[in-house]
Amino acid sequence: MNGLQVLRLLRVLLHLMVGLWTCAVVFPFTDAAGRQWRIKHWSIKLLAICRVRVALSNPQNSVAPSRALIVANHVSWLDIFVINSIQTCQFVGKSDIRDWPLIGWLCEKGGTIFIARGKQRDVRRIFQGLVTSIQAGDRVAFFPEGTTAAQGAVLPFHANLFEAALDAKVPVQPYALRYLDEQGNLHPAADFIGDMTFAQSMLAILKAPPMKAELIQLAPVDTTGSHRRELAAATRVLIAEALGQTESVAA
């Protein structure tokens, strides 16, 4: 790493320390609105240090419903902070995230609900809480692929948590997410796949040229009379098409 990259790494570590201090000392004495404001602005600054610029696009000029289940494709650990920089959400994430250095604890204190992959009992345990949160007006979000995928692919969507939208009688609000370089091509440093660790991903991002995170807001999906598997399949098609992944749509 050169001097500038080392400086950026030190800034990230300092920002993480600020986040840890805020969660431990400030959050217990702050209401929900105050916590959401701090999470949003902490996310914005983290992305700025990593030289990730967020661009929200809405090609269909659709209006996001006030109550909805938010879903997106999953590329990187950055995804949570990209979405939070636009609107703070209560995320459902895989339990592995809790073990990430510093970030895992921050995600937990920021309201992330952890679920063990492949454990149906865990889905049942958190399901009613998700429905209650959505009905109360909280923004609940999850990544239905269940894991990160390399840019250029959209994995099959797991249908279980789509049931929460059906029970809460709210639409699904899909977003398509991609990371681009200065030429508008998919940015390779964003990929967080295979055996790559969080630390390795962070270093790759700090060493790489700046990137743009494009968050594409799609039209809400009506859930009336639908089945969770139909919702999952239809939402996947919409997201894959928005990303130009015709092969993924046909998969």
UniProtKB/TrEMBL annotation:
Organism per entry: Collimonas arenae
Superkingdom, taxonomy of origin: Bacteria
Coiled coil: none
SMART domains documented for this protein: PlsC (SM00563)
Name by which UniProt lists this protein: Acyltransferase family protein
Molecular function via GO: 1-acylglycerol-3-phosphate O-acyltransferase activity
InterPro entries reported for this sequence: Plipid/glycerol_acylTrfase (IPR002123)
The organism's taxonomic lineage, starting at the top: Bacteria, Pseudomonadati, Pseudomonadota, Betaproteobacteria, Burkholderiales
Swiss-Prot/TrEMBL keywords: Acyltransferase, Lipid biosynthesis, Lipid metabolism, Membrane, Transferase, Transmembrane, Transmembrane helix
Phospholipid/glycerol acyltransferase domain location: 68-180
Transmembrane segments: 12-30
Pfam families assigned to the protein according to its UniProt record, in alphabetical order: Acyltransferase (PF01553)
Pathways involved: Lipid metabolism
